[in-house]
Design brief:
This protein has two domains: 251 residues, Cell Cycle, Spindle Assembly Checkpoint Protein, Chain A (2-Layer Sandwich), CATH 3.30.900; 419 residues, MFS general substrate transporter like domains (Growth Hormone, Chain: A, Up-down Bundle). The protein has 22 helices and ten strands. 45% of the residues are buried. Its main location: membrane.
Length: 721
């Protein structure tokens, strides 16, 4: 590698010359570093601006709302015989209202959870609780002659109540880092586990004392109270809207809130406004092999003993803290072993969250113990029922089984959110869909199995089904990290391809609108739903394509700082610089490190953003003035790397070809810009993986050489195109 003639930093370039054009694409990087800064040591940014106490308060409110998902189902059971009598229907027909409730309980979170991942947690909580409260009013007033209305309103009730658990999981993903996520899931699970325990008691008491309609009046009042609490105190937490909590949400998201929680950054700064998210189809999560394995592993155990694990809300706090401890132990171990690249500028804790961190091991390594405990107690429980022993035996086994299944559930649910934290509600909704489906199937066949083989062998068969899915634990630990890394790279590569494709289109458009070549050399086409111009000259096209491929290679590594298209005169004097500034988010900061790339704008949706770039680029001549074809101007493509980055070099692949990089002219790079140059901002877009902005600089030399093409401007100010 060699240095540019007047450059203070190493500069590299590749040159191609042809009679029809003169083009150079170059790579420039600045190796200036602070000698007092040790490589790899960076102050870690907090995952969220909320304090630990504020997080507990937020999760407690989410847990309170989560009570209503199981409560509305279980409080209804004691009233079924009474309602069958008053509606003049059989118990089987009244039980159909339970069936339709379960169906909606599995489906509705897929709708509300997806909306919350796009539009925020707070409005979805309010919408669900409002729908639940109003549906309970309708149920309480339903005439006993309208059985169809009872069925319909039970579906509406399920649509309002069932999604609160998925929404709460999304809140935890927003505010809790992986190192503390297990404990918060333990706290959150307390509410949904209390609901089934108190539901039948409350339902039986209200039915006996005030009648079955009192059940729905109770649910109406209690859900309305919860609605008021959420409205007054729950802040918006969606990271794609408020970042780490330092970005204020839209005005409507703050209406009615009592400011009881002060949010302050530890470093006194505010996070940049995150990119706007598009809708993500939650069914696409079923295409992730690691997610599918976890769903089968988790929900293959739970429906087998449906109901018994709900009685262990307090123990969920213990298992949650155990998950946090396991995570930190493994994290600290990897830090001490130094299994991280010292060239990466990350804090110690951030390095532990690198893609090499065995997240699956941290969450699942205690599961074999709980699985053995659970399966052993299950078999013993069945034979206790068969032998009709003292009730103390089955109760003790239920207690142990409940603790074991809660531990399994918390570990898997926490890992699921770790895998796709940007879709915390959606992934929980997928888990809920599988659980409800398998639970309904189990309920439909368990009595048939008991009648055929008896209690003892029934539970042996159920334990065998759990054993059949247990090897998936090894599959997840072994292949989960591989699948996770492949998914991350695939999404990043798609975004890189989208960015480089746009840059190629933009280069052709720049050459056309700045009259570097005759207009008849270009053909008008349509890209990103807007007219663009493409060169028809094969040699020029080959050159631009090669340059863009070189850019793509560096972009995929996260090395690129800027791509500059330089318009220069015949004396190699830079007249204009079209600067594509690139901020790579593939290697994220610590507070975004655990945000999956699924949080970013999908590569397929980038076209609508690039369209606005090209529309403004086509109108740039009005701002810059016209360059004459007779001026014999040419162009260069300059690639500038981030500080401390080096270009890709593969000498063994060169063979007879020259090295890919040769010195660039310093005056063509952004480091050679005069302070008197004018800057025009064109457009910016934050994709969440790579953030891109485009600006145009008019050099001082252009204003001196071609005063007729420039207009009077205020010095030192950026102009918007």
């Amino acid at each position: 590698m060699s240095s540019g003639p007047d450059s203070k930093t190493p500069v590299h370039a590749q040159t191609y010359d042809a009679n029809e054009h003169d083009g150079t694409h170059a790579l420039s990087h600045d190796n200036k570093t602070n000698p007092d800064t040790r490589p790899g040591e960076v102050k870690e940014k907090p995952y969220s601006v909320f304090t630990t106490g504020q997080k507990w308060f937020i999760v407690s409110m989410a847990s309170l709302a989560g009570i209503f998902s199981p409560l509305t189902a279980n409080i209804y059971f004691p009233a079924i015989p009474v309602m069958a009598s008053q509606f003049h229907k059989s118990v089987e027909l009244i039980n159909l209202t339970v069936t339709v409730y379960m169906i909606m309980q599995g489906i509705s979170p897929m709708f509300w959870g997806t909306l919350s991942d796009r539009w925020g947690r707070r409005p979805m909580f309010l919408g669900c609780l409002l729908l639940l409260s109003l549906s309970c009013v309708g149920l309480a007033l339903t005439p006993s002659s309208d059985y169809w209305l009872l069925m319909l309103l039970r579906c509406v009730q399920a649509a309002g109540s069932a999604s609160t658990i998925a929404l709460g999981a999304g809140v935890i993903a927003d505010i809790a880092s992986p190192a503390e996520r297990g404990g918060f899931f333990g706290l959150f699970s307390f509410g949904p586990m209390v609901g089934p325990s108190i539901g039948p008691v409350i339902g039986g008491g209200l039915t006996q004392g005030l009648g079955w309609r009192a059940i729905f009046w109770f649910l109406c009042i209690s859900s309305a109270v919860c609605l008021v609490v959420i409205f007054l105190f729950l802040p918006e937490t969606l990271r794609s809207m408020v970042g780490d909590g330092s970005v204020p949400p839209p005005f409507l998201y703050r209406v009615g809130m009592v400011p009881v929680m002060r949010k302050a950054r530890h470093d006194g700064t505010r996070e940049k406004i995150p990119p706007r998210k598009s809708f993500n189809n939650p069914l696409m999560l079923f295409t992730y092999p690691d997610v599918v394995v976890l769903l089968i592993l988790n929900d293959g155990h739970r429906p087998v003993f449906l109901g018994h694990w709900w009685r262990h809300g307090g123990r969920s706090l213990i298992t949650g803290k155990m998950l946090d401890r396991e995570y930190r132990v493994l994290e600290d171990k990897m830090i001490k072993q130094g299994k991280f690249d010292p060239e990466k500028k990350m804090s110690a804790r951030d390095r532990a969250r690198d893609s090499s961190f065995p997240l699956e091991v941290a969450r699942l390594r205690t599961m074999p113990v709980f699985m053995v405990l659970y399966l052993g107690c299950m078999v013993g429980y069945g034979w206790c029922l068969k032998a009709q022993v003292s009730i103390a035996g089955p109760l003790i086994l239920q207690f142990i089984m409940g603790y074991a299944i809660v531990s399994i559930m918390n570990a898997v649910q926490t890992l699921l959110v770790d895998l796709v934290p940007a879709q915390g509600s959606s992934i929980t909704a997928c888990n809920n869909l599988i659980r409800c489906s398998l639970g309904a199937a189990m309920v439909s066949v368990v009595n048939i199995i008991i009648d055929a083989v008896g209690d003892g062998w029934t539970y042996v068969i159920l334990a065998a089904t759990c054993v059949a899915v247990t090897p998936l634990l090894y599959v997840e630990v072994k292949w989960g990290p591989v699948w996770r890394e492949r998914r991350r790279k695939r999404h990043a590569e798609q975004t890189v391809r989208g960015i480089t494709e746009f840059i190629e289109v933009a280069i052709h458009t720049i050459l056309y609108v700045r009259h570097i070549y005759p207009p008849d050399l270009f053909i008008r086409r349509k890209k990103y739903n807007t007219p663009v111009y493409q060169s028809r000259h094969p040699v020029l096209n080959e050159y631009i394509t090669g340059a863009v491929k070189a850019i793509e290679s560096e972009l995929a590594l996260g090395n690129v700082d800027k791509v500059v298209v330089v318009i220069k005169d015949k004396n190699e004097v830079a007249l204009e610089r079209f600067i594509f500034s690139i901020q790579t988010m593939i290697e994220m900061e610590s507070f975004n490190k655990d945000t999956s790339v699924e949080e970013a704008i999908p590569a397929g949706a980038l076209g609508q953003y690039f369209r606005s770039f090209l529309v403004k680029l086509n109108m740039i001549e009005a701002q810059l003035g016209e360059l004459s074809l007779d001026a014999d101007n040419s162009f260069a493509i300059v690639l500038e790397l981030q500080d401390g980055k080096h270009p890709m070099t593969h000498p063994l692949l060169w063979k007879d070809e020259p090295p890919p990089w040769v010195p660039a002219v310093t005056e063509h790079t952004t480091t050679g810009v005069s302070e008197k140059a004018d800057l025009h901002m064109v457009r910016a877009v934050n994709t969440g993986v790579i953030n891109l902005s485009l600006a145009v600089q008019e050099s001082e030399d252009k204003k001196r050489l071609f005063p007729e093409t420039t207009q009077p401007k205020s010095k030192g100010k950026e102009k918007a195109v």
